[in-house]
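Dissemination and training. As part of the outreach component of the grant, students in the summer workshop were shown how a complex can be specified as a set of sequence lines and then modelled as a single object. The example used during the hands-on session is reproduced here so that future cohorts can follow it. Participants entered these lines:
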Amino acid sequence: MPEIIDDISAEDRKRLELSGIEFDQQKRSGTFVQRDQHIHHSSSKIEGIEMLPLDIAMNKYGWLKDYYWNLVDREKDEYTRFVADREEKEGLRGFVVIARKGSKNIFPLQSCLFMQKAEVQTVHNIIIAEEGAELHLITGCTSSIGREKGTHYGITEIYVGKDALISTTMIHTWGENIDVYPRSAAKVDENGTFLSNYVSLKPVGTVQMYPVADLTGKNSVARFNSVVLAPKGSYLDLGQRALLNGEGSSAELVSRMITSGGTVIARSHIAGISENTKGHIECKGLILEDGIIHSVPEVEGRLKNTELTHEAAVGKIARDEIEYLMARGLDEEEATATIIRGFLDVRIKGLPDSLQKEIDAAIDAAESGF
Amino acid sequence: MLKIEDLHVSVEGKEVLHDINLHIREGETHVLMGPNGSGKTSLLRSVMGFSGYEITSGSIIFKGIDITNLPLYERARYGMGLMFQRPPTISGLKLGKLLMATSGGEIGEIGRSASQMKMADFLDRDVNAGFSGGEIKRSEVLQLLIQQPDFVMLDEPESGVDLENIALIGHSIARLVEKDRHIIDRHKSGLIITHTGYILDYLDADAGHMLCDGEIKCHGNPREILKVIQEKGYQECIRCQK
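and obtained this result:
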C-alpha cells in the first residue's frame, strides 16, 4: 500500500502519530490527508461510509449544497469570511464524510491536517451520519516542527441524524508559532448523540474556538470533553456551547485544564430551552506555574423543567495529596506527575476503546513535559 | 527498629510534642493511647516526616540510621509506612494506578491483595472518592500490603469500621506486622494509635504508651493501660504518673 503521505521527516511523522494518525491504517476505517492546501489521500474501507474531498463530494452529490455553510455562517467573522473567499478563488479544501443509514465503523476514520510550509491552511469539513449510523472520527492536526508562523482555519459542520452517533476526537500537536481558529457546529436530531473530544497538550500560539451543538431532536445528547495544557506562550481560548432545543435533550461539558505558564480561557454555555432538559458543566483547572486559567461557565435556563448545574475549581495541587503519595515512596516529582496524570484522566462514555487509547497515549506522552 | 530520643516537635511555632522517648525493637508492635488532641497523630506524622512538623531537638533513629532530617519519601523507601486516618481524595487518580506506581508494576500481587482486602472493584475508582469509613481503611491496608513496610504506623485503624470489616482489617494488620509468625521469624514492627483497643483482639501488642498534652505519661502493658482508661478515664493515668 502506498504511504498516505510521503516526503516528511521522521520527527514530523512522530508528531502525526502522536496526534492519532496511523500510517499503516490497520486500525482505521478510512483516511483523509491534507498537507498545506494539497489533498494527498481520501478513502474509506467501510461499505456505507464515504470519505471524500469536499470538492469531489460537492460535484457528486448536488444535495450537499444544503449542508455547506449551513450550520456555520460564512459571515460569522473574519476567519469564516477568509475561508469562504479562498474557496471561491482557489477551490474547495477539506473533506466530507457520509455515513449512510445504519452504517457503523468500529475503527475510526482518520483525518490528518498537516501544515508543512504554507502560511495559511484552510479546510472545510462536512460530517453526516444518517439515521441509526454510528460514526467515529479522529482528527490529528500538526505543523512541521520548528516552522515559522502559520495560521490554520477550519470549518466543520456536523449533522447527527435520528438515532445516530458521531464522535469526533481532535488531537492538536501544533507548534508555538501556529495560530488556530476552528469554527465548528453540530446539529443533533432525535435520539442522536454527539461526542466531541479535544486534546491539546503541546505548545501552540493561539487557539480560539467555540463549537456549538444544537440539540434540536427529542432526547438528543451532546458531550464535550477537553483536555488541555497551556505551556508558557500558549493562549487557548476554548468554548463549548450546547443549546437544549429538543424536548428531553441533555448535554455535559467537561474541561480539564493545566497551565504551566500559558493562558486557558474555558467558556462553557448550556441553554435549557425545552422541556425536561438537563445540562452539566464541569471545569477543573490546575495551575502548575503562574499562568492564567479563567473558567467562564454559563448555565441559562429558560423554563421550569430544565435542570442545569455547573462546578468549577481552579488551583494548585494540594500539598496533602502530594505527601500522601510520597508516604508511599514516590518522590515529589513522581507524586506530582501521578496526580496530574489522574487529573487529566477523562473516561468518555460511548467512545470506542481504540479512541480512548489514543487520548490516553497523547496524555502519557505529554506527562514528561509537565 | 525505631528509637526516638528526646524529641521535641513544633507546629506553626508552637511545641506540640515534648521530650518524647520511645524504643520499638524489631518484631515488636506497640500501641499509642491518649485523649483527643494529645499529639498522637502529630507523633506519627513527625516520624514519617510530613511537612509542617518541625523537629526542634532530639532525634529519630530508624534501623540504626538517623532519619531526623530525611525527606518523607526516603523514609518510605527505607521501610516506613503509614496508614492514614483521613487520607485525601485524589480526583481522577485510580486506586489501581496508584498501586501500580508504588509497587513498580507487580500486577499479580495487586490483584491478589485487592481480592484479599475486598477491594478488587475499587481499583478503577478514584482514590478515596466516595469511599465509606471501612472502605478507606481497607484501601489503606491494601496500599500497605503492596508497599510492605518494615515498620508500619497505623492511625486509628478501627475507627469508622463496621463489625464485618473489623475482623478483615484486624487480621490483615496482624499479618502486616507479622504477628501471624513465630516470634523468632518476626522482623516487622508497628505502632498503632487506638482509642477503643478493638485492634488488640486481633494482635497482641508488646507494649503500650499513654500520650497526654504532648508528653508520654505512662509506659506499660497495653491491656492494663486500656483497662484503667476504660474504668477511670485518662485523668487516672495522669494522676498515677504524678
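The two ends of chain A are 38 Å apart (CA to CA). Students were then asked to discuss how this feature might be tested experimentally.
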